[in-house]
Amino acid sequence: MQNTKEFKTYKQQIEILRARNLKFKNKRKAYEILEHYNYFDIINGFESILLKPNTKKKEYDNVYFEDFYDLFKFDLELKKHTLFTVFKIEAKLKTSIAYNFAKTHCNKKSTTMNYTNKNCYKKPNVSDSHLTNIFNKFIFFRKTTYKNDKVDKLSFINDLKKKKNYVKHYDHPPFWVIIKAIPLGTLYYTFLFLDQIVKPDVLKDFNFSLEEEKVFEQSIYLLKEIRNQCAHLELITRFKFKKPLKLNSFKDLSIYSDFSKGQFLNFMDVTKNFK
Fold this sequence. Notes:
The protein is mostly helical. 53% of the residues lie in helices and 5% in strands.
């Protein structure tokens, strides 16, 4: 049965909690907290831990609003440290891909822009129509298009020059400059499309072998999902991610990191991936 909630003022929210026997050390402070943070995140996010057990209606037994807020603050701190760890891994991955790709394909002035050349990457298997479609439309390969003699869409590089001051200083921006502007989702596909010369060197920088390519690929995908959870201010302790079928339901990574059984990954699975 679907549930529909009516709008409640901050005062009404507090009264609802009081009716459930929730206690307050400082009701005025609680009011200010609800003005700043979402009721749903603070209360609903943790009520399964603090609700009185074995009761049909929501009720608390010697629980304070401040207990909820402490859990919420803990989640914020955990989110901050998780995001910082993802940033460190992402920074290293960008450096490794840019360095090893440039070393192989962009090591002369005349080849500086080879990162926009499809022929410098490994095309997906034609049987994988989804990945093939992404490859053919990959952002690095986008050219300037025109409509009625006017620019319809800028190329990837020209668009980046327009948006990033540090890029427009270059006539032919090198890979290690433009990769700074690449989001983790695009970086994930960049790794997938690396050829068999560059990819082993990138894996080696992370102490992985080419045989562990699938494990590494799935790790990047998981990092992308956990970063999105943090960036969108979702509760990190409630992270629950369904294992995607297109990545073989994370079978390789599940074995490598001894993930929890079942269809979903939780935050503890993510911490295993950081080890």
